Structures are given as C-alpha cells and as structure tokens.
Amino acid sequence: MTRCASSQGTGFACVVAGTQEPLDAARSVCAVASALAGDRLRQRPLRRVRVADLHAVLDHLDEVLAAIEGLSARVRRDRIAAVGHSWGAQSVGTLLGARVLDADGVPGEDFSHPLVRAGALIAATGTGETLTPFAAEHLPFMRPDYSTMTAPALVIAGGKDQSALSTRGPDWFTDAYHLSPAPKNLLTIAEGEHTLGGVAGEQVAETTDDDPARVALVADAVSAYLLDALKADSAAWAALRDDPTAPGGAWTMQGK
Question: Which of the residues 60, 148, 206, 246 has the least number of beta carbons within 10 Å of its own beta carbon?
C-alpha cells in the first residue's frame, strides 16, 4: 500500500521513504540509507537491522533527501510520521517508544526517535505470552512492551486476523492499542485478515482477503489520522472519528 496523505487547501503532501518500498525514488533514498548504516549494522539480528535502517534515514535525513533533486526544500522536518504493517508495524512501534522484553521480562534498549511525531501500526503483533512454541524459539523479538509507546498512534487490526504465531485470536493484534498509553486510536475492520485486503501489494501471494475497498479504507484512515496528528488538517479525521461505527458494522473506531 503506497498512498500519500493530502488535503485541499493545506498545501500538504507526504514523502514516503521505506526500507522495502518498490518505487524508484524510494529505492534511491534506501540505497543512501543503507550506505550510511554501514555493513557493521547488517550483522545485527533482523529486528535490529530494520530499526537501524529507519534510524539511518532519520539521522541522515538531509543526505537522504538530497538523493532526489529539489526534495529537501519541500520537506517539513517537524511533520515526520512512521507507518508499518506486521513486523514493520513493530518497527514503527519501536520508533514511537515500544521496547522488547527479554526472556526474564526485562525491557530492552529504547530505540525511539525524537523526529517521529506520530505513527500508524497496521496488523501489529501482540505481546509474547501466547506465542506458539515455534515463534517463542525462533522469533524472540516478538515480545513487545507497549507500555512505553507514548507517542500518538493509530492501530489498525483485522477482525479475522488469526496468526499462526500466537494461540490467541484476532484480538492479539489490538495489544498495541490496549496496552499503550494515550493518545491512541484503534480501527478494527470486521472482515479483515492479516493483509487487510492487500496492503502488502497487488496480487502478492500472502493476500488472503483481496479487497481493494478495504485497502482504500486503511489508506484513507492512515492519511486522515496523520493529517490530524501532524496538525495539517483535522477535517477528514474528525469525520471518521465522529462516525465510530460504519454502516453494516464493517469497521469500528475506538479512542483514548
């Protein structure tokens, strides 16, 4: 899913820089970020590599933006947000203040970043108490502690997202909302599975609930939320927030 937030009359648009983004422009900025991160960081575990890539973009933002002519002058450094899906959502949570618990339940290092003002966590994995034996053995980083995720965030979860990595049901994907401090919002899409209609990309193999309208809902909700959180325009988010239950129960909204 690649969709920029925009609003008539605000002059606001977004620049997307991602570590797995297929667009040519994003490939350019990712190449710069990878070079800045250095081969040394590539020796770290998967989660640390993802976070290191994101920090490399943020810590060297001027160099990254300089990879595309004319882009630097158009970017507001005080309006930076992060959006991620699944493990990418866990990375976003890390930037917003979430930590990972070790085997003894001790929170790990703080990898939050001061430039990131808000975020959206799409199908973010829940806490580690109910991991399957395979996940507990092979994916030790799937023990997030959301109690320190203090930055504003929108959490999006699918009502039919049944993970093979947890013995819990779809409510596992709402932990990022329920276990984190305010301000937070939770959008639950009743029929959504893990890719919520196909946010990972068109016709990708892991999309089990192909639904362009569902993808559009996720994109519009993220756009509206970030416009409001970054103080660009509150109209679209207010309209969505003030209508907390969609016709037919297709989705519900909570906030705190």
Answer: 206
Contact 100, 44 (CB under 8 A): no
Task: Report whether 122 contacts 196 (CB < 8 A).
Answer: yes
Coil, helix or strand at residue 111: coil
Mean pLDDT of the chain: 83
Residue 248 is classified by DSSP as G
Each residue's pLDDT tens digit, 107-161: 999 999 999 999 999 999 999 999 999 988 888 888 999 999 999 999 999 999 9
* Rounded distance between C-alpha atoms, residue 113 and residue 23, angstroms: 25
1 alpha carbon, distance to own chain's centre? 12
By C-alpha distance, which of 82, 75, 79, 78 is closest to 111?
A: 82
Cα angle for residues 94, 145, 103 (degrees, 5° grid): 110
Check if the beta carbon of residue 117 is closer than 8 Å to that of residue 229: yes
